[in-house]
Amino acid sequence: MTVAVFFGCSFIAFGPAFALFIFTIARDPLRVIILIAGAFFWLLSLLLSSLVWFIAMKASNDKDQQLQRGLLIFGVMFSVLLQEVFRFAYYKLLRKASEGLAALSEDERSPISVQQMAYVAGLGFGIMSGAFSMINILADSLGPGIVGIHGESQYYFLTSAFMTMAVTLLHTFWGVVFFDGCENRRWWVIAVVVALHLLVSGLTFLNPIYEGSLPPAYVILVSMAVWSFFSCGGSLQNIQQFLTCRKNDAGSEVAS
Amino acid sequence: MNTSDSEEELCNERTSLMTGSPPISSYHVETGLPSSMDTQTKRRRPVTNQSNNRETHHEGVSTERDSTADSEDEELSLKYGAKHVIMLFVPVTLCMIVVIATIKSVSFYTEKGGQLIYTPFTEDTTSVGQRLLNSVLNTLIMISVIVVMTIFLVVLYKYRCYKFIHGWLILSSLMLLFWFSFLYLGEVFKTYNVAMDYPTLALVIWNFGAVGMVCIHWKGPLQLQQAYLIVISALMALVFIKYLPEWSAWVILGAISVYDLIAVLCPKGPLRMLVETAQERNEPIFPALIYSSAMIWMVGMTEQSAVQQPSHQERNSDEEVGQSHHDNTEDNRNVVVPETEVHGTQSRTSSAEELEEERGIKLGLGDFIFYSVLVGKASATASGDWNTTLACFVAILIGLCLTLLLLAIFKKALPALPISITFGLVFYFSTDNLVRPFMDNLATHQFYI
Fold it and tell me: How does it assemble (chain B) (predicted)?
């Protein structure tokens, strides 16, 4: 509950996303707009899912703790599904926009590729998701209080920060893979993304047994990173060339 | 607390604001070469319509371009389209950040300190119905005052009473730059318990105000002018946040977007008449009270001096009239104007040499103020705190984006308040009532969605 905790947790939670934003998105206005529109779409999905949860909650018995917990779990699952639906809707919108942009330019090329849009859209989703999860907690960490005074975990802020970072980056990678799956009509990819999202959210039901939720989330994060890297054209050769600073003529990186 | 004093000042301020510059709630596309614009429009219209009704971003359309556009120009215009949006995102974001930071740290602006004379009905009533009625009455009074002032202003403009208008603008910006910033500084010092002596304070305020007056009404570096405009809008928004009672504020925000829509789009609307009068006279629409995001530099004017004579004079008169008077809150509403391309397009078509040219976009300061009022009220009164503020922020930015897209499609005066304020209000109420309990419960159990 000190300034150190505040800064530490905010850097843990938002550091990677902020760095990605500064280095790859901030310079290009089109990407900034796609990012903010992605955040808006995530917000819409959250709105609808909380509406559903709210109705279910109000229609049920307030006092029954088990029921309320069950409803919350249902709310989480429904929200995950709705987020993926909105991700698909955003993909459709971006495809049409890309076609429009390509039609307007003389050489029939859109100024931004689908992979770039996928990355930016995923990051938009991730930033908004992370912000909504973490900002209130960060604001509370500045004020007075004792963590876990009723016997809960001491590491609430730290684990929240790590989980937020994982979720933000996961959304980015899911965005890349999802759009790639939609582009190439590989529906199993979409199913896997949805399943993984459900899995990660489901693992958080094990909190505060953090061993059950954080390490698996990070394992999934690393595997998603590898998968998205290969799905957008990366290869071991690319990495080799990057590490040895050799010129790369066939690479198709996501961020320019 | 000197409530009555500041209220009177505010009333004077608001009166002066009201009779100041005209409300300009419009996007206005100024084009220098009608012929080139037409050909361009004809050429691009089918493409534009087809592509734009699918996009949320407006990159597809550029407003002024050469009739001899090549592929690079096409790409450039697309980038310009997105660039214009970012040029507006940044100042709007900055203004909102200033307002939110102040609201969260300086408690003065969230304390009840009385009400303005324009909202005489109190909201401290016993029943909900009475409170609602009072807020609706407050709104009616406020909106009718605004309408009267707008019409008065349009009349003044029509009968060319420029001196009157300028005097009023100077008076109101004096008030804002000196008096309100003095109050603001005082409250900040109180919050952080900073000891300050009057001579230092006088020096600081004098410098701040004098440089502000020069920058805004005469000449100054563009970024300094923009910074002053943002600060001025934030100050005005803070005043509104403090002195408007809660329910009245929301109803007023809603009502003013409806008024904006009517005033700009209806054929007999005052703002539309203002825009058309300004267009007839070939004058820029009140450079005062407008945030301008870029300047036009001219290189190599001598060759085309004959052609550019009128535009050059216009530009001079621009500078004489002076830039931006922001105090007029309701009046200087949403003008988003792509910067006068008169010079730009002419020089581009006629000269072969490289011209340094930066096209910009203009937005009325009233827009800044009302966006910031919405976000500031959201952060001051919402129990969901930061989530609600963030949601309203994103909603307003998306609304601005959509409005600019519509501007690119329709290429005529459009109000900038309705879409953003509607989104902002919808997201405020839904986030505060629906999302907040959901996220709170999730955070309690540490579930992640």
Answer: Homodimer.
